[in-house]
């Protein structure tokens, strides 16, 4: 579906991620984890051509991304960045922007666009905010608007960069559920998460980054058993099994010595 083949990418001629080689399959959730500054966001940006690519190729369904037009690519790949600009734009208008790649000349939103937009606002729990201006919203409400914008399209691949930021715990869990639903619909989900338990809970695969390199991409259990999490985050970890047999990470403390 989406493949990064030996990608080296960064900013201002400085490579940040190096020789990243990974394929994201249809109907699977991959959680990207790693310490601050390890290159998780840059990996997502490289996939959507928002940083400089020095080596390697991004493929979507076997086609070289650089040969697909931006609009064609955006039809299939939806990207939710870590930070957003805010302005005086109304919520519904903002969510409608998620329909932009699907518009043909004369670029007017039609009935179908409003239906997708309405459904996405419902999913994100912001229907009652649709007439408000973005600048009037709280951090969490704004984040939901951007989530709705990502959901308003008809993409096959979703890239979410720390989507739980600003959200209360109830909505964090709802968002995880939305990602699981996307997987059930056969979509590809790639999500940067700092909460390892969330990542363990929903991901088919954890991809661990450190200093711009992809160390390992494997099932959550295999990643845990490899000891890599404890090493890259410099923490002592344990897996606890709850009464329903679900496994949870427990961070005992900072690694000593
Ligand atoms: N626009 C930019 N211009 C120059 N350097 C950048 C830019 N964005 C990120 N970097 C650098 O690239 C490196 C990796 O940053 P990136 O945001 O990809 O890491 P991350 O793993 O997503 O971090 P975090 O967990 O803190 O969000 C950092 O050293 C950062 O300073």
Automatic annotation (TrEMBL):
GO molecular-function terms, A-Z: ATP binding
Topology of the protein relative to the lipid bilayer: Peripheral membrane protein
Keyword Cell cycle in annotation: no
Keyword Iron: yes
Cellular localization per UniProt: Cell membrane
Gene3D superfamilies registered for this protein in UniProt: P-loop containing nucleotide triphosphate hydrolases
Domain ABC transporter: 2-236
Keywords, comma-separated and alphabetical: ATP-binding, Cell membrane, Ion transport, Iron, Iron transport, Membrane, Nucleotide-binding, Transport
A Pfam entry, by short name: ABC_tran
InterPro entries associated with the record: AAA+_ATPase, ABC_transporter-like_ATP-bd, P-loop_NTPase, Siderophore_ABC-ATPase
Protein name: ABC transporter ATP-binding protein
